[in-house]
Every structure is written in structure tokens, then in C-alpha cells.
Write a structure and sequence with these properties.
Blueprint: H1 2-30, E1 33-34, E2 46-47, H2 50-68, H3 70-76, E3 79-84, E4 87-93, H4 94-118, H5 122-138, E5 145-147, E6 154-156, H6 159-180, H7 186-205, H8 211-238, H9 247-264, H10 276-281, H11 283-299, H12 311-317, H13 322-347
Antiparallel strand pairs: 1-2, 3-4, 5-6
Helix pairs in contact: 1-2, 1-8, 2-4, 2-8, 2-9, 4-5, 4-9, 5-6, 6-9, 6-11, 7-8, 7-9, 7-13, 8-9
Length: 350
């Protein structure tokens, strides 16, 4: 599978240099531009449909290995009966999971691009995000339980709990990436590091003696490799000074993909610690978003109303340059990612 991972990464990385310029051209033709104002840190109009190019790079890579890699085709043919305790739930199919993730991510990409162009009010937007999460869940991408730190300690969630937790997990990741996307290259860089981390974890844990977990980890590895490559090539155009923004379309797409990858893959690792690994990787944006929500509730603002009090804005006010702020957050994210990998190595056995 290492060849498949490498191929997916390289194809997504290369694809970005074709698809992102296309998205810049399309945003210009459609007049989808992010105009400067007192809240924003850029001083000129910037195209904001870059998320389309990022997503197309990802789909190009995954689609190519889907059609031309025998190893990937064999992996996707895997199916297994799933039981919730004694109750038969259905048959889990990796190919079906991939289709669900593809359909759901395309849905949130379109949702975000529509919002970038025309605007959508927050309650409707959140409802549509929940529908996107349900799409993936309906295709088998769900948190069905968690392994606890004792022998044979896998706790199975009741069906309704599994559904609620899965929807909250996916919508939470989507909105975290969306809210943290405040500086050139920030969200794309964090997501590239996170996807790279999930790829390493999938490789390290991919030989699990539990066949289902092993297969899902390999699928997560392919998705992580493609997402890392797509986000990496997007950074070429998005790093300060940005030529394009990912917009809500790109941010929701990245959040959806990271959440889906963790559900399919990394949550199958390292017993109880599996639940905290994805959170540790994105701990800084999660804490930043949680702080922003509390701040807005205290001041009577709408939760999703943007402001200039995020962590990165505070660093700018303290004299950090744009690039220093973004690179500093990269370093913190990378350290947390290394910690997550070490946690996987030293704490976990499936």
C-alpha cells in the first residue's frame, strides 16, 4: 500500500498546480472575490473559490488510483457484516464508505461555494452540514463505539448515540476549520500537517490483527495522502501574500475530509487513546474556536459572527508578522502531531 499512498500524494500535489489556477480564473469570471474591510488582514480583492481547485486535486488523485491501482481496487472490495451487540446492523463496504465520503464532501464543497457567492444564514448552513454528515453516515462512516483501556473493553454505542456523535464529530471538524481560516495559509497548512499525521498513524497501525480495522486504516491512509498533497499544493497559491482563498467551500471540504478520515481510520487505533489523537492534532484550532464561541456568547454576539480576536489576530497585535504567526502555529501543530504519533506507537494496540 505504500506505493498507493505515494501515488495518491504525488497526483494530488501535481494536480493542484492545474486545478487551483482554474479555480482562480473561475472565481474571477464569477466575481467571487473576498473584499478587504476593517476585520480582514488583506488589502486587495482576492478570489475565494480556491477550495474548488483543492477539492479537484483530491478527487483527481483518489479517482486515478481508484481506476488504475489493483491494490486499491482489491482493498475497496472488502466487506464485512456489522453487529451492534447481538443486533445485525448491516454490511460495511469500504467502497460504499468511499462513495459516501465523496458524495458528502462534494455536497459541502458546493454548499460552501454557494455561501461564498450568495451567502447563507447560519442556521440553514448548519442544517445542511448535518445533512452532509448524515450522507457519510448512511454509507457506513460512523462512530459505532470506542475501545476502552482494558482487555476486551470495546464499548458499543446505541444506534441513536452513534448517529448523534458521528454528526457532531463531522460538523464540529467542518466548523473548526472554517472558523480558524483567518490568515493566508493557516487552515491549509494545519490541515496538511493533520492529514500527514493521520497518514503516518495509518501506516504504523495498518497491520492490525483485526481485519476490519486494518482495511479501514488503509483506506484512511489513501485519503490522508491525497488530502495532504492537495492541501500542500494549495499552499503554493495561498501562503502569504495569498493569490487565492479557499473560501467556505474549501474550509468545509477540508474539515469534512479530516473528520471522515478520523472516523474511518485513526479512531480504530490505540484503544482509548484513539479518541484523543485527532483532537490533539488539531488542539490549537479547537481551543481557539472554543474560546471564540465563549467570547461571543458572553458579548451577546452570534456564535458564527466573525471577529478579530482569534489567537492569530492576537499574535499580529503583539507585533508578529503575518508569516511569523502562521509558521509559529505550524510549529505548534507539528509538535502536537509528533506527540500523537508517539502516543500511537507507545500506548496503543488495537
Amino acid at each position: 500500500m505504500l506505493t498507493v499512498y505515494a501515488t495518491a500524494f504525488v497526483l494530488a500535489l501535481a494536480g493542484g498546480f492545474a486545478f487551483v489556477p482554474f479555480s482562480i480564473w473561475l472565481a474571477g469570471k464569477a466575481n467571487v472575490l473576498d473584499m478587504p474591510d476593517e476585520r480582514k488582514v488583506h488589502g486587495v480583492p482576492v478570489p475565494r473559490w480556491g477550495g474548488l481547485g483543492l477539492a479537484l486535486s483530491f478527487f483527481f488523485a483518489v479517482g486515478t488510483v481508484y481506476f488504475f491501482s489493483d491494490s486499491f481496487a482489491k482493498l475497496l472490495s472488502f466487506k464485512q457484516e456489522i453487529f451492534n451487540g447481538p443486533e445485525f446492523v448491516g454490511i460495511l463496504s469500504l467502497k460504499k464508505q468511499l462513495l459516501g465520503i465523496t458524495f458528502g464532501s462534494a455536497f459541502v464543497l458546493g454548499l460552501g461555494m454557494w455561501d461564498d457567492k450568495f451567502g447563507i444564514n447560519a442556521p440553514v448552513k448548519f442544517l445542511l452540514q448535518m445533512i452532509a454528515a448524515y450522507i457519510a453516515m448512511d454509507y457506513g462512516v460512523r462512530l459505532s463505539g470506542i475501545a476502552m483501556p482494558w482487555k476486551n473493553g470495546y464499548v458499543v454505542f446505541p444506534l441513536i448515540v452513534s448517529q448523534v456523535v458521528t454528526i457532531l464529530w463531522l460538523t464540529g471538524f467542518m466548523n473548526t476549520v472554517n472558523l480558524v481560516d483567518g490568515l493566508d495559509g493557516l487552515a491549509a497548512g494545519i490541515c496538511a500537517i493533520a492529514a500527514g499525521t493521520f497518514l503516518v498513524i495509518a501506516i504504523l497501525q495498518g497491520q492490525s490483527h483485526v481485519i476490519l480495522f486494518s482495511k479501514q486504516l488503509k483506506l484512511a491512509g489513501v485519503l490522508s495522502a491525497a488530502l495532504c498533497g492537495a492541501a500542500g499544493s494549495f499552499l503554493w497559491f495561498n501562503f502569504h501574500p495569498a493569490k487565492v482563498f479557499m473560501g467556505d467551500g474549501g474550509a468545509l471540504f477540508l474539515g469534512y475530509m479530516l473528520a471522515s478520515i478520523t472516523v474511518v481510520g485513526t479512531l480504530k487505533t490505540t484503544a482509548f487513546f484513539s479518541l484523543i489523537i485527532p483532537i490533539v492534532v488539531v488542539a490549537l484550532p479547537v481551543l481557539d474556536v472554543a474560546s471564540a464561541i465563549l467570547r461571543r456568547l458572553r458579548s451577546g454576539q452570534q456564535v458564527f459572527q466573525p471577529d478579530k480576536n482569534h489567537f492569530h489576530h492576537q499574535l499580529l497585535r503583539h507585533g508578529w508578522t503575518h508569516r511569523e504567526t502562521v509558521l509559529g502555529i505550524y510549529v505548534v501543530t507539528l509538535v502536537l502531531s509528533i506527540f500523537s504519533i508517539l502516543l500511537t506507537v507507545f500506548k496503543g494496540k488495537v
